[in-house]
Design goal:
Elements: E1 10-11, E2 23-27, E3 32-36, E4 44-47, H1 49-60
Antiparallel strand pairs: 1-2, 2-3, 3-4
């Protein structure tokens, strides 16, 4: 996914920094991009902000 404006990536707050599994997200008003922090050049998942909100609400339960 390319964009004329590169968004910063944010690592999960659950990341320990010890090489464990975690994800990073890059937020934009119309798309939330998600990637594996250990493979930043690998595949990315793009979802709508509404879908991301639904997922994070579900995951927090």
């Amino acid at each position: 996914m390319s964009s004329s404006v590169e968004r910063p990536w944010f690592k999960s707050s659950y990341s320990s920094g010890a090489g464990g599994e975690c994800v990073e997200i890059a937020a934009h008003p119309t798309t939330i991009r998600i990637r594996d922090s250990k493979n930043p050049q690998g595949p990315q998942l793009a979802v709508t902000p509404g879908a991301w909100a639904t997922f994070t609400t579900y995951a927090a339960r």
